[in-house]
Automatic annotation (TrEMBL):
Residues 111-132 are annotated as: Disordered. Residues 3-217 form the NAD-dependent epimerase/dehydratase domain. It comes from Nocardioides albertanoniae. SUPFAM superfamilies: NAD(P)-binding Rossmann-fold domains. This is Nucleoside-diphosphate-sugar epimerase.
């Protein structure tokens, strides 16, 4: 079975690629650069050269594969609306290529985007509020799930903070960099907001199990830690980096944290009870605080 993966050389995608290869799948990976292509080829991955800005090429690769796992996204926070439109166009092109085939299309989404229908942690039953090309991330999750009516097996992969011991380029690394530059590890307000999280290897396992077991239209919450208070994250970074820990007022958060302020101050609790039962997924990796303490985010 050949799986076409966008983002195959990225933070999550490289782990998913390794998980699939280790379990007998063939993988074709999207590569925009020579460096990414070389890294994939070294693993035994077939390379499809292209980018998210070329929907026709993505459609061809999707049609040739047995299933698609779409993990790439253009993370241009200076022009996030354009990134969302590009995401919509890329996803629609691949879905149109799969229409009527019964094939699987899985796409990365986020637990932060779920519309909670009850207080507390977001669950798999909570829908995304984003619809249409001009909405957040191009409304791609709802677009994909709508193709269940067009003989496609769509699955949304909702990721929280994905952490790991080596090479994490994401949100926690950004917080560590801000702490180093500011000389203080900060949290917003009282720091009671919580971040859901998952170890990268556990995330990759969850994706494979979703590929094998998730029903059409399923929203998989690839969540191991339902919520770690942001104050505890700041304290762990401060202790590891040898920096003081201080509260940052909500009014000063954007000046202190930049684009991260809104996300860090919002809180993103998420449950994965339904996903664990449906997929038989049991995450066993280290926690976010374990990774921070182990030096994963040292600068």
């Amino acid at each position: 079975m050949n799986i076409f993966i966008t983002g195959a050389s990225g933070w999550i995608g490289s782990a998913v690629t390794d998980e699939l290869l280790a379990n007998g799948y063939a993988v074709t990976g999207l590569a925009r650069s020579d460096k990414s292509a070389a890294a994939l080829e070294a693993k035994g991955v077939d390379v499809h050269r292209g980018s998210l800005d070329d929907p026709a090429s993505l459609a061809a690769a999707a049609k040739a594969a047995d299933a698609v796992i779409h993990l790439a996204f253009i993370h241009d926070f200076d022009n996030f609306a354009a990134s969302g439109r590009a995401e919509h166009d890329a996803v629609k092109a691949m879905l149109d290529a799969l229409e009527g085939s019964g094939k699987t299309f899985m796409l990365a989404s986020g637990t932060t985007g779920a519309s909670r229908t009850a207080p507390g942690a977001a669950t798999e039953d909570d829908p995304s509020p984003f619809h249409g090309r001009d909405s957040v991330r191009g409304g791609a999750e709802n677009l994909a799930l709508s193709y269940a009516e067009k003989d496609v097996r769509p699955v949304a992969l909702r990721f929280p903070i994905v952490h790991g011991r080596v090479g994490d380029p994401g949100f926690v690394a950004y917080l560590a960099q801000v702490a180093k530059e500011r000389g203080v590890s900060g949290y917003i307000g009282d720091g009671s907001q919580v971040w859901a999280a998952v170890d990268r290897a556990d995330a990759a396992l969850g994706v494979r199990l979703a590929l094998e077991k998730a029903p059409a239209g399923f929203r998989a919450h690839i969540v191991a830690e339902q919520g770690t208070p942001t104050r505890e994250i700041a304290e762990a970074l401060g202790q590891r980096l040898g920096l003081p820990v201080e509260s940052v007022s909500p009014e000063d958060a954007e000046a202190h944290f930049g684009w991260m302020a809104r996300m860090f101050g919002a809180g993103t609790p998420a449950s994965s009870d339904i996903t664990r039962r449906t997929l038989g997924w049991t995450p066993t990796g280290p926690t976010l605080l374990d990774d921070i303490a182990a030096g994963a985010y040292d600068l």
